[in-house]
Amino acid sequence: MRTIISHTRAGLRHDSAMTDPAFLGATIRGDRIRLRPLTAADVAPVVEACSDEVTQTWLPLPRPYVEADGRWFCLEFAPRSRETGQGIVFGIEFEGRLAGAIDLKRSDWRARSTEIGYWAAPWARGRGLMREAVRLLTRWVIEEQGLARVEIRVATANVASQRVAEGAGYTREGILRSAGFVHDGRVDLIVYSFIEGDRGGTSAGGVAVSGSSGEAAGRQGA
Ligand SMILES: CC(C)(COP(=O)(O)OP(=O)(O)OC[C@H]1O[C@@H](n2cnc3c(N)ncnc32)[C@H](O)[C@@H]1OP(=O)(O)O)[C@@H](O)C(=O)NCCC(=O)NCCS
Which of 116, 159, 194, 219 has the fewest Cβ atoms within 10 angstroms? Predict the structure, then answer.
């Protein structure tokens, strides 16, 4: 029997029926970018960005990263992540091109917490687009999905990613020793967080959210 977990004013409620929580499919619009589901058209740009040396340095992706890996990420992993309630994957669209990906993972619906991960296509870096994407997604998670805490975990040597987290208003909490791994071995991770009370810091300009029809099944509001 699957379980519904919902957050009510009275607290956490479990109902034995229906379906597990899952993130509501959505397109999230910011001033410059749009976060939207990945499609088959994204496979080639995903393969290109995930073959990049910097991406390969900080993410333990298949090496070489081939078309089958891109297809799996866009067409199997992404939908499964949302359907299982673990997370949700968005493509970051900028000027009609896929500028990167940003996702939620390791979501804990009872604790109302989740974690953000991301990569940017090399051509899209250095424009503050990922900072905007993190702000947009954080606001959506807290204001639209009812979660209370979002984490970002960054290798201690990944300065660009630390700048993204800090620029998006996240607070550095401490270091998790040997908590991550990259191709070169295990790494210490800095844990950053953004919590409900921090929400003033998610200001990302105009934000518009539109849900995908029929994708709300099973998600329980805050
Ligand atoms: C992390 C990443 C998404 C950042 O991309 P981005 O949004 O284009 O970020 P930028 O290139 O604009 O850099 C962000 C900030 O870091 C700074 N920065 C970039 N590279 C840097 C470096 N090597 N050393 C120090 N600072 C650096 C930039 O100057 C910028 O500073 P600002 O906030 O003052 O403007 C991108 O580098 C990437 O895709 N890396 C590979 C995957 C990855 O590391 N993912 C995150 C895993 S936790």
Answer: 159
